[in-house]
Amino acid sequence: MSTLDLNTFQELKDATGADYIAELIDAFLDDAPNLFTQMNSARMTGDAETFRRAAHSLKSNAATFGAMELSALAKELEGMARENNLEIGTRLEVMQDAYRRVESQLRALK
Amino acid sequence: MAVSIEPARLLVVDDNKVNRMVLSRSLEQQGHFVETAENGREGLEKIRTQTFDLVLLDIEMPEMDGFQVLEACLNDFGLRQIPIIMTSAMEELDAVVKCVELGAEDYLTKPVNPILLRARVNASLEKKRLRDEQRKLFRTFATKEVAEELLRTGFSLGGKHVNATVMFADIRSFTTIAESQDPSDTIELLNGYFGLMFDAINNHGGTVNQMVGDGLMAVFGAPMFQEDHCERAVRAGLEMLEQLKVFNEQQSAQNRMRIHIGIGIASGEMIAGYTGTQSRATYTCIGDTVNLAARIENHTKTALRPLLIDMHTREGLSDAYQLESLGEVLFKGKQQPIHIFAVSK
Lengths: 110, 345
Prior knowledge:
The complex is a heterodimer of chains A (110) and B (345). By secondary structure, chain A is an all-alpha fold. Chain A has helices at 6-16, 21-45, 48-65, 68-82, 91-109. In chain B, 45% of the residues lie in helices and 26% in strands. In chain B, strands 6, 7, 8, 9, 10, 11, 12 and 13 form an eight-stranded mixed β-sheet that branches. Chain B has a five-stranded parallel β-sheet with strand order 2-1-3-4-5, with helices on both faces. In chain B, helix 2 (40-49) packs parallel to helix 3, helix 5 (114-141) packs across helix 6 and helix 8 runs antiparallel to helix 9. The A-B interface holds A 8, 11-12, 14-17, 20, 23-24, 27-28, 31, 56-57, 59-61, 63-64, 75, 79 and B 16-19, 21-22, 25-26, 29, 60, 89, 91, 110-111, 113-114, 117.
């Protein structure tokens, strides 16, 4: 089963030009680990605002590529952080797993 | 396929790199030229220093958010006409509504659907093109300030009290001039003269709202309020006299008649607004201050000074001007004598 909505992915490819998609994927995959680092340390220090911003970016980027599950997980965390709630249980780990699946599929599509 | 549209210069302001790349690349694929900025501050700087037909503006950004950029643009006379499309996440719809109420042209939710992107961008560009045409047409018949005010607030008859400065200017012995030369020379003379005077007035933020024969009336501080309306009017008056010197030198060089003018300026409260009918109206000011300015202009003939102002205008000036008190003058129709000053530089 695909972790990406391939219609969204194809639309993105059509809109930006087929030769550009690799560059876009790289921009996303280069940035995502930083976002996870930011969320992990913000969770330690209780910095809900930094956490929220990172989750917001991940949500937005995931949706751009059609990674709907990842985007939904990020959106949930963004919402919790907005309410200053960093009692997120294992959600960050679950999201990291989802990201790994997205990452490998995107690398294959480059 | 959507209607093809002229390539435009667009600015994409977004702190998210992927968003910037997707938006700018998609718009380039649609034939436009795209510039990007990574935050609100950088975006506003580019809007101020470069020329754009349209801006796509993210709401949540560090350094200066989309609201602040939008407000800065809407409050700037020169930037107000650039359409701004807000781009935001679905959950930020409340914020988007606020932006549209403030004056944003439209909005797009991210991730941006490419078909909607094309449609909204093209619609905004088309609307801007029509507004630019309308503005050009307005400007031919009204002044820039009045045209902007009309475009911004819509047209309605009726006035309001404003504190402003009114100027009247007239050519001395114009009838004699007109009688002594060919009618086409007279029109040419008037057009050349008015062109220079309009520029001088516009340069200082004034609005010429009436031209009758060889005379004109201008207002400073309305319809757009200007704190320093007294000073602006006097500076415009001095520039008009300077321009006239140049004009007269050209006239002499071509063996044509030199002209002399009188300028009268008065400041204070007046009623300003659009008078007329729904099909033909003009922005004008009425009230004692306006009558006084006309009387003062007429008094330049007796006073033998080209630029006269009243006490209220005098009070609004800095020390930078050379003033000569001409004492109090009792004008026709006035109960109280008015203290008059001549300005020479």
